[in-house]
């Protein structure tokens, strides 16, 4: 990353190979469209290049940074143009009736993936629904509250408690 | 929204599940609240695990596209080359007349200051994230809106650097003024002070004395500072000096 910040394009190529699957997978999971996901991946990897010097390792890993950028951009896309259409489509899919399964589909069966799945399984059903709908579904917590017919404060605390439980299960240090 | 209400949104923010107004409220909170910033960093790391667990190879053609884009995309906030700071050249005349001696001595000091400035400037790395940590670390003596005006101005430049002898600082250089935030500065003897300088074309202009407490200071440079200037800090005799009498401990100069 230090080399990338100093303009080393070869180092960036290595970083691309390291980060792009996580970036692309995140965008694809949220957008459910390979072309949009590829565009987001391109945008995020270019932003990593452009702003590498600003990266502050005290604030977390490079991968966390890149995946956070990818998710933010993917969600912004979902919410702009195709927001309503997609949501309607998802409601028809009935995806939120089985939110845990959305993690499993179309995804490489990596060890990392299995670990996250196991940890998601350790959450309460209501925590898991809230976290999965918000993160993979790109919903706001207000939308989550409507879909799960739960009060807003309840949804907020389910999300936070769910994430903290995941932190313990995954052993995330940050 | 109260701070507690905003704090309740940290989890939803980490999942990008808040609206734009809430997003900004959270970003304001973590700038001021170290505990909230730490919690958010953890929650974001957890959220990123959820994303990374869905890893999927992008189309193979994308790699070449991105690398080609990278080859023609400039980076922001790269280290400044040492030559970026003009250094005054001392007079090399064969004879030194008495009435010139003081001027030469002053120039010699300025030159050393300038060279040190160039060296330290090369170490200064702009960091939008760094500023957040420093804002949290210092007490709110500068009015919050002065800082937020500076930070939200797209023309503002944020620079970060380490002080010689210890401590780190962030400078926000704007069109209306500049702010210096520093922490971890070594304590000085009672007859010495930290003095702030606006650095203009390699020449220091007095910009006030720094009220450093427990190694920490946040100062607004209004007088002496002009847009385009950098900031520097040196240790001076109590009361300050019209020109620096020591090498700067800190120099932050925009590129």
What order do the helices and strands come in, and which of them pair?
The complex is a heterodimer of chains A (174) and B (255).
Chain A (H helix, E strand, L loop, with lengths): L1 H4 L3 H23 L2 H17 L11 H18 L3 H11 L5 H4 L8 H11 L3 H11 L5 H8 L3 H19 L4
Helix pairs in contact in A: 2-3, 2-4, 3-4, 7-10, 8-9, 8-10, 9-10
Chain B lengths: L2 H5 L2 H5 L5 H13 L1 H19 L7 H12 L26 H26 L4 H10 L6 H9 L4 E6 L5 E6 L4 E6 L8 E9 L2 E8 L6 E5 L8 E8 L12 E3 L3
Antiparallel strand pairs in B: 1-2, 2-3, 3-6, 4-5, 4-7, 7-8
Brief write-up:
Chain A is mainly α and 174 residues long.
Please, could you describe this protein's structure?
The complex is a heterodimer of chains A (174) and B (255). Chain A is mainly α and 174 residues long. Helix content of chain A is 72%, strand content 0%. Chain A starts with a helix and ends with a helix. The relative contact order of chain A is 0.10. By secondary structure, chain B is an alpha+beta fold. Chain B has helices spanning 3-7, 10-14, 20-32, 34-52, 60-71, 98-123, 128-137, 144-152; strands spanning 157-162, 168-173, 178-183, 192-200, 203-210, 217-221, 230-237, 250-252. In chain B, strands 1-2-3-6 form a 4-stranded antiparallel sheet, with helices on both faces. In chain B, strands 5-4-7-8 form a 4-stranded antiparallel sheet, covered by helices on one side. Classes of the chains: A mainly alpha (174), B alpha+beta (255). At the A-B interface, helix 2, helix 3, helix 4, helix 7 and helix 8 of A face helix 2, helix 4, helix 5 and helix 7 of B.
């Amino acid at each position: 990353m230090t080399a990338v910040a100093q303009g080393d394009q070869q180092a960036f190529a290595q970083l691309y190979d390291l980060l792009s699957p996580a970036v692309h997978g995140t965008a694809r999971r949220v957008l459910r469209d390979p072309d949009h996901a590829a565009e987001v991946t391109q945008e995020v990897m270019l932003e990593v290049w452009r702003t590498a010097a600003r990266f502050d390792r005290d604030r977390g890993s490079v991968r966390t940074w890149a995946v956070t950028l990818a998710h933010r951009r993917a969600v912004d896309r979902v919410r702009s143009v195709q927001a309503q259409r997609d949501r309607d489509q998802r409601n028809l899919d009935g995806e939120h009736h089985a939110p845990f399964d959305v993690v499993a589909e179309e995804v490489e069966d990596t060890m990392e993936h299995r670990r996250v799945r196991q940890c998601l399984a350790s959450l309460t059903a209501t925590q898991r629904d809230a976290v999965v709908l918000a993160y993979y579904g790109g919903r706001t917590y207000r939308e989550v509250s409507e879909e799960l017919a739960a009060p807003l404060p309840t949804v907020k605390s389910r999300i936070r408690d769910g994430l903290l439980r995941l932190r313990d299960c995954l052993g995330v240090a940050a | 929204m109260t701070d507690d209400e905003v704090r309740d949104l940290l989890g939803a923010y980490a999942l990008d599940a808040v609206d734009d107004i809430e997003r900004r409220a959270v970003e304001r909170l973590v700038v001021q609240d170290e505990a909230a910033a730490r919690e958010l960093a953890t929650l974001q790391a957890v959220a990123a695990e959820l994303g990374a667990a869905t890893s999927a190879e992008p189309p193979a053609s994308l790699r070449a596209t991105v690398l080609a884009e990278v080859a023609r995309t400039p980076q922001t906030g790269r280290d400044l080359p040492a030559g970026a700071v003009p250094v005054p050249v001392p007079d090399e005349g064969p004879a030194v007349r008495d009435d010139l001696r003081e001027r030469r001595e002053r120039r010699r000091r300025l030159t050393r200051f300038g060279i040190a400035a160039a060296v330290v400037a090369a170490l200064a790395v702009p960091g939008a994230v760094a500023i957040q940590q420093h804002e949290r670390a210092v007490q709110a003596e500068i009015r919050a809106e002065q800082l937020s005006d500076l930070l939200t101005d797209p023309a503002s430049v944020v620079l970060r650097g380490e002080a010689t002898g210890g401590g780190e600082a962030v400078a926000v250089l704007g069109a209306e003024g500049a702010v210096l935030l520093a922490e971890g500065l070594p304590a000085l003897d009672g007859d010495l002070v930290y003095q702030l300088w606006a650095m203009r074309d390699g020449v220091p202009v007095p910009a006030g004395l720094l009220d450093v407490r427990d190694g920490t200071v946040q100062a607004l440079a209004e007088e002496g500072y002009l847009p385009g200037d950098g900031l520097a800090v040196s240790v001076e005799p109590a009361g300050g000096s019209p020109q620096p009498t020591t090498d700067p401990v800190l120099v932050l100069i925009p590129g």
